[in-house]
Amino acid sequence: MTPDYPAARADIIDGIFAFQIWTRLGWQEVKRRYRRTVFGPLWATLSLAIFLGAISFVWAPLFGADVRTYLPYVTAGMVSWSFVSALITEGCTTFTAAEGIIKQLNFPYSTFAFMVVWRNTIVLLHHLLVLLFVYIALPERLSFNILLFIPGLIIVAVNGAWMVMLLGMVSARFRDIPPLIGNLMQVMLFVTPIFWSPSQLGAKARYLVDPNYLYHLIDILRSPLLGDRPALLSYAITIVGAILGWAATFAIYARFRRRVPFWL
Amino acid sequence: MATVTLDNVTVDFPIYGSTHMSLRQTLFGGMGKLLGREVPKQPRVIVRALENITFELNNGVRLGLIGHNGAGKSTLLRVLARVYAPTRGTIRLDGRISPLFTSSPGLDLDDTGYENIKTCGMFLGMDASDIKKRVADIASFSELDEYLDLPVRTYSAGMLTRLGFAIATSIDPDILLLDEGLATGDARFAAHAEERLQHLIARSSILVLASHSDAMIQAICNQCALLEKGRLVSIGPVEQVIDLYHRRAEAQAAAVGGAVAVS
User: Which neighbouring-strand residues pair with B7?
Assistant: First the structure.
C-alpha cells in the first residue's frame, strides 16, 4: 500500500470543516437520549452519582482516608475517567457505525471521529453536574485552578481524536478489537489511580503510574476539578503524546484510508 | 462543463473471511500448529470486480449500465462516486458528484421527519439555507405534512420510501449516479415519483444509471454500456448495446443448454 498523504490530509481538513455535520450528529445522539427519557444522559450522571456516593463511604475507611477528601477525589477522577474511557471504547465503533454513509458517499471519514469526540464532550458536561453537588458540600475544593480544566479538556479532546480515528480504523479491520479494548479498559480502571492515589504507592508509583498514559490524561482533567494544578509532567506528556499520536495516526491513515470502505 | 474520464480502471476486492477479521487469529493462528489444534485458515480471496475499464463521458451524456447481477454495475457506480478507490488506473471527475444509491443517507429512525430532512440533506451536500428552502417542497411532495413532526420509526414502509425519495430528489445534481430501485411506494405515488425523477435527471449534466429494466434505459438514456464479469464489453448507442446484451445472454443460455443436452 503506497501512502497517499494528500488524500489523508484533505480528509482530515475537510472533516474538521464539516463541523456543521459532526456537531449536529453529536447533538442529535444526545437529544435522542433525552427523547427516550426526560433526563436523558442525566440518568447516566445519576447512576454515576449513586456509585460514587456508595463507594466513597465504603472505600474511604478501607483506605484509611477521610470521606471529605476521598469523595471529591473519586468523583473528579471518575468523571474524567468516564470521558477518556468512553472515547476509547466508543472510538472502536466510529467507522463501523458509519458504514451506511462510508459505502454510499465520498465523505471525509474523519468527520465521524470528530463526532464521537464532540458527543462525549457533551456527555462529560452533563457529568460535571455531580461535581456541583460536591462543591456545594465542600466549597473549599473550588479555586481558580478550575479554569485549567479548559486547556486540559482541549488537550484530551485532541488526543481523543487521534485515538478514535486509529481505533476506528483497526477495529474496522479486526472485528475482535472492540471487546479486547473493553476488557483492557476494565483492567485499566483499577490500574490507573482513580480509586486510589499515587502517593499511596510511595516510591513504586514511578514505575507503575508514570508510564501510564491514561493517568496523565486523567490528571490534567482531575486536578483542576479538585482545585489543584496538574503536574507539568502530565502536560508535557499529553502534549507530546498528542503530536506523536497524530503523526502516527496520520501515517497509518495515509496508508490504509482507501481500504476502509472495503473493510466495512 | 462536467466530464468523467476513466482510464484502465481496475478494482480488486479483498474478501475477508472471519479468520482474517480476527486479530487474535491473525497473531496467534500459528500457535495452533504447536498445540496440535489448528483452525483451518480460510484462503485469502481477491475478487476482481472491475478490469481495465476505460471510457469518457461529456456533458449531456445519459449512460445506462446493463449486465447480469455481479457484472460490476454497482461497483462501477461506487468507483464513480469515489467510494472505492481503483486498485489500478485513474479516474478524473470534473464536476460535483451526486450519488443516489440509497435514498436517505444518515437516516435515524428515532429522529423526526424534519430532523432527518436536515441530516440527510447535509450528507447530500446541502447547506442549512438550501435545506430551509427545500423543506416545504419535500414536505408537500412526500405528502407527510404533520407526520414530519413524528419520529420516522412510526412511519409505514411506504411513508419512509416517500420521505427518502423526496429528500434525495430535491438535490441539484451535477454528475448524477443512480442505482435502480430508488423509489417508489404505491402506484399513485409511482407516477408522481417518475415525473420528479425526470426533473432531477433533467437538472443534471451527466447521468449514469444502473438498471435491469430495458424500458427504463431506453426511456432515459442516450448511451449504454454493457458489463460482463467486470469487463466493459461494449459502450455505444442504446439499442445496439441492449441488442448485444440479449444476443450474448441467449448464446450463453444455448451453450449451457447444449452442454446439458450432450451430457
Answer: B90
